[in-house]
Amino acid sequence: MPLNLRPNFHDPDRRRFRDYSAGDDFYELLIESHRGLDEAQSAKLNARLILLLANHIGDLSVLREAVERARDGS
């Protein structure tokens, strides 16, 4: 399975009129999850979230490509 680089956010319980609305909602959720945390707590939250999502994806080739792209900024 190749890394999906197209917008892929969705919320099956809500009808959307814009493709990026669910992505905006996720971004807001992510920012809110850091509210009130110090830098160390925020870093731990990010690490836990990355590991949970990586486990959900499971495909090492997809994860490898995602890490490479994130590191290179592409």
Query: What percentage of the residues does DSSP assign to strands (E)?
Result: under 5%
Low-confidence stretches: none
- Mean pLDDT equals 89
Content-based structural category: mainly alpha
Largest sheet: none
Order of helices and strands: HHH
Termini gap: 19 Å
Number of E-state strands? 0
How many helices? The count is: 3
Overall geometry: globular
Q: Could you tell me the radius of gyration in angstroms?
A: 14 Å
Share of helix, binned:
55-70%
Descriptors:
single chain; 74 residues; mainly alpha; 0% strand; globular
Characterization of this structure:
The chain is an all-alpha fold. It has a domain at 37-74. It contains three helices and no strands. It has helices at 21-34, 39-57, 60-72.
Topology:
Layout: H1 21-34, H2 39-57, H3 60-72
In brief, what are we looking at here?
By secondary structure, the protein is mostly helical. Helices cover 62% and strands 0% of the residues.
